[in-house]
Amino acid sequence: MTATLAHPFNQKIRIAGLRLATLALLPVLLFTAPAVDGLPAALLHGAGILCVVAAVLGRFWAILYIGGHKNRTVMQDGPYSICRHPLYLFSTIGATGFGLMLESFTLTLLVAGMVLAILTATAKREERDLRRMFGAAYDAYAARVPRIVPDLSGFSTPPRVTVDMGTLARNTRDALVFLSLIPLAETLNWLHAAHRLHGFALW
Question: What's the pTM value of the predicted model, to 2 decimals?
Answer without folding.
Answer: 0.84
